[in-house]
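One record is kept unedited as follows:
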Amino acid sequence: MESNLQITERYSDGHNGRCALDVIMSYYGWNGEDDSQAASKLLGTLIALRSAGIDKNLLLEMNDSGFTFAEIADYIDQIM
C-alpha cells in the first residue's frame, strides 16, 4: 500500500495527500472522492469517533497544527 502525504486545511488533495481525519474516514470506506456516498461515510466516521470519545475538531486542529499521523494515532490510542 502506498503511503499518504499528510496535508492540512482539507480532507484530501485528490491525489495522495490526506489529512488525519480523511485517513480515518478511509477506514470506514471513503475513497477520498466527493461522490454520492461521501456524506454517509463521513457521518459513519463521526458517529464512531463520538462513540469513542474522540473530538473530530481536535483531530483536525492537531493535523493542521503540525502533529504527525503517528502522533495523532498515539493520541487516539490513549483515548481508547
Remarks:
- The chain has four helices and two strands.
- The chain has one domain: 5-79.
- The mean pLDDT is 85.
